[in-house]
Amino acid sequence: MTRQTLLGLGFLSPALLAVVMFFLLPVVLTVVFAFTNMSTSTGILGGAYQISESDLRRLPAAGVSDEAVTLLEGAGYAVQPETLALFAAEFGEDRASELEKLHGGATFDDRRAMERALKELRRNPLRKVRDRKTAAELFRVSILGQRFATEAEFQTAIADLGVPDPDRAALTTAAYTGWTFTTQNFELLWKLPATWRYALNTVLYVVLTLGFNVSFGLFLALSTFYLPTRTAQTFRAIWFLPRILPPVLYVLMWQWLTWDQGFISAMMRPFGIEPINWMRHTATHAWIFIVLINGCVGASLGMILFSSSLRAIPETQLFAAQVDGANRWQQARYVLLPQMRWPILFITSYQTLSLLTSFEYILLATDGGPGRQTEVWALAAYHTALSNYGGNLEYGLGAAYALGLVIIGILLSALYLRFFNFRELVAKPRIEQ
């Protein structure tokens, strides 16, 4: 490798590092997380082994026999150094020493047997029934609620309880509290009715907003193309404001426009129309304003790009069209639009991918309401992984949602390249061949 090559790689290394850290790594992690059951309950760094009383009901479904479940429910009572230490701390060293002499190392099947053993204390007996019941619970041997850091420790504990060998593997799997690799996220996405509702909402959102973005942006560009330069620049600057405004401020202005005491209600009141929240009154109203909110932002970008592309078309072509008697509509249809395929392809593909993955304006405007009827796929991924109402953030399921968007985006990009005949767009002009 030459010195010039090494020097070039040295200059490129910050950019390559940024690409890896902020582009490749998030994509790779999304793919990995999509095949895990990672959530708030499992954590992201691995887990331990623990069985609680509430877990006993689901153990048979996990392949654990009823015999093993019974052993876990009532593991018995044992006079061991650990339990004697608890007893000594609660009821004194003298009683613990006497009990160790009488029943050291003994085990009992139930609490009554343990209480009878405690009755045999003579030098300092436990006279109250309540004290004997309390003391008996100190000798209970159970792994319920205990947390074992390693699989080996858990295996040893269930072996000491007498759990049969065939049940140990299933019980160990059920007891693990950390995340594991699985395909259940995609199976769940396929089965959930809400998934199809989110998919249909996304199709509706992308199609309507994309149509508004491209068509209105092209209309604005063509409308300002024939205006005087200063007037056109002023008009474009006004329409570019939604793009540069902070999303929170921009959506807040729309909410002021549509809420029950806002501008639209104030204008409608003289006509006898009762004030309502126009943005969230019905699903139809919500979709109309979502398309308008996102459409104005996207149309402003399309307007700037289309205007620049129109300015790049030689004026001589327009002069020739005028000589042939073409009016402005005919100039736009037969001269300008045929040469706009490349910018239209870029805006269409860019806006499609942007709309598939964006949700901030919907989050700020309706948060998927009313009744989740404006919840799109990307917003569902956000709610699932980062802000759901149940409290248990499901990172793996949210990543599966996001991976689905990545796949759909790649397929749509390939479709656009085919539809716009990308090879012809990048081919050399025939005059140069």
Topology summary:
Elements: H1 3-34, E1 49-50, H2 66-73, E2 77-78, H3 81-91, H4 93-103, E3 107-108, H5 111-119, H6 129-137, E4 147-148, H7 151-160, H8 165-175, H9 184-191, H10 193-225, H11 229-239, H12 241-244, H13 247-258, H14 263-268, H15 283-312, H16 315-323, H17 328-336, H18 341-357, H19 360-365, H20 377-385, H21 395-419, H22 422-426
Antiparallel strand pairs: 1-4, 2-3
Helix pairs in contact: 1-21, 3-4, 5-6, 10-11, 10-15, 10-18, 15-18, 18-21, 20-21
What does this protein structure show overall?
With 433 residues, this protein is mainly α. The strands form 2 sheets. A two-stranded antiparallel sheet has the order 1-4. The chain is elongated and about 120 Å long. The protein is built from 22 helices and 4 strands.
Task: Name the features.
two-stranded antiparallel sheet, single chain, MetI-like fold, 4 strands, 433 residues, mainly alpha, 66% helix
In short:
With 433 residues, the protein is an all-alpha fold.
Beginning-to-end CA distance, first to last residue? 36 Å
Counted by DSSP, the helix tally is 22
Q: Beta-strand level of the residues, as a percent range?
A: under 5%
How many independent structural domains? 2
Number of strand segments: 4
Highest CATH level, the class of the largest domain: Mainly Alpha
| Shape, per Cα inertia axes | elongated
Which spans of ≥5 residues are poorly predicted at pLDDT below 50? none
CATH architecture classification of the largest domain: Orthogonal Bundle
Strand order within the widest sheet? 1-4
Helical percentage: 55-70%
CATH superfamily of the largest domain: MetI-like
Structural class comes to: mainly alpha
CATH topology category name of the largest domain: MetI-like fold
